[in-house]
Amino acid sequence: EASMLNIFRVLLRKHLIISWRRWRFVGALFRVLILAAIPIIVMSLSASRDEDTQEQTRKTVVSFLAPLIGSLFILLVFQQFVIEVVTDKELKMRYVQQVAGVSLSAYWASYYLYYLLLTIFATIVYMVSIVYLAHVYKYTNIFLLFVSFTGSYLQCFFLAVIVSTFFERAKMASVICGIMGSLVITGALIVLPQLKTTSAFVYLLIGLCPFAAPLSLLRVIGVLEQLQIGFTFASWSTISDVTAGTLDCFGCSPAPAPGTQLLI
């Protein structure tokens, strides 16, 4: 009888081979580059102007455009993973594997590792583009930024597992998830600036909402970037004069510290 580890290896190899044949990593790279090109182009257009104009452009990008693009980036990778899982279900491959003795734990663990590899690849490309090419995040610790995206992906993985139980067709799942995710991001863009509270309970509820949670965190990071602080271990709990909206900066509004939002 095959061991759990051997089954896991076979499943992971299957995911990687199929993703290679279906150009999944190339597709992820293409999506990332399209999104990352937007802040790169915006920052390039201001490169020929004076330093004050360049810095003002960067502040606008990091406060509004970067959080929006980051949330859309997470949504697109989530959509791609939903397509993978539902396609497996649509082609009856999941049931064949279960009949062959593959446990649910091995099945989902292999998918999680595959998803983790896909998201790490996409995140590295995105961060290199937006940090080192567009120079949007100058003061933020790149490791904490990476962890912020990875935490959002983990949340989206469990959402994808739930979503896959409701759909039989990958195309329909992709369209519905795209529409619902876009509505959540649009609603968060409208609601978050109107919130006048730093209540951890309120932001815990927001933290339970995929796509809205990373948008909220990236907005706070944007405020810290404007103030030349960034999201670092030193500013983990910075809130009193920064995120409370008492300072004059674009997009400043009451919100918990970035470290608190990352944890919740």
Write structural notes for this entry.
With 264 residues, this protein is mainly alpha-helical. It contains 10 helices and no strands. Helix 1 crosses helix 5, helix 3 runs parallel beside helix 6 and helix 3 runs antiparallel to helix 9. The protein is globular, with a radius of gyration of 20 Å. The protein starts with a helix and ends with a helix.
Summarize the structure.
With about 260 residues, the chain is an all-alpha fold.
How do the helices and strands line up, and which of them pair or pack?
Blueprint: H1 4-21, H2 24-45, H3 51-90, H4 93-99, H5 104-133, H6 142-163, H7 170-191, H8 200-207, H9 212-226, H10 258-263
Helix pairs in contact: 1-5, 2-3, 2-5, 3-6, 3-7, 3-9, 5-6
Structural class call reads mainly alpha
Instruction: Give the SSE order as H and E letters.
Output: HHHHHHHHHH
- The Rg value, from CA coordinates, equals 20 Å
Major sheet:
none
Count of runs of 4 or more consecutive helical residues: 10
User: What share of the residues does DSSP label as strand, in percent?
Assistant: under 5%
Which blocks of ≥5 consecutive residues have pLDDT under 50?
240-250
Q: What is the CA-CA span between the terminal residues?
A: 42 Å
Arithmetic mean pLDDT: 80
Helix content: over 70%
CA-based shape: globular
Query: How many DSSP-defined strands?
Result: 0
